[in-house]
């Protein structure tokens, strides 16, 4: 079942890239007591994600944070090494690049995507959400290919 507005983010441990290598981070550390914009992509370095989705959040990070957002999170079912490298390649210094390597949070949210037809295995659907103190207040899941309802520009209208 897909997470809904009003639901709490499930407890889960993920990874981010630190100076010494992958670092564990929990959903509680990310979301508790904070206003967070989380957007998820099917895969780091893929065309739509690299040309449109992540860049939209990179260029609008200051505006998003000025609207009261504590943290902007980009999540993909990739490992911390890939997410760290992608963040550097995209100059995403203001964005927490979150690796859901085993897809645990993606599955718990009910937002998996079967990418096996493209050789990608199980990935995340493209979506964006606003989370306040661990509760989802806005959820925008893309109905098909492309970046529209989960774009930075669309999310900014809801802040």
Automatic annotation (TrEMBL):
GO terms for molecular function: thioredoxin peroxidase activity. Keywords: Antioxidant, Oxidoreductase, Peroxidase, Redox-active center. It catalyses: a hydroperoxide + 2 glutathione = an alcohol + glutathione disulfide + H2O. It comes from the Bacteria. It is an enzyme of class 1 (oxidoreductase). Coiled coil: none annotated. One of its GO terms (biological process) is cell redox homeostasis. One of its GO terms (cellular component) is cytoplasm. The keyword Repeat does not apply. Its EC number is 1.11.1.27. InterPro entries: PRX5-like, Redoxin, Thioredoxin-like_sf, Thioredoxin_domain. PROSITE patterns: THIOREDOXIN_2 (PS51352). Thiol-specific peroxidase that catalyzes the reduction of hydrogen peroxide and organic hydroperoxides to water and alcohols, respectively. Plays a role in cell protection against oxidative stress by detoxifying peroxides. Belongs to the peroxiredoxin family. Prx5 subfamily. PANTHER family: PEROXIREDOXIN, PEROXIREDOXIN-5, MITOCHONDRIAL. This is Glutathione-dependent peroxiredoxin.
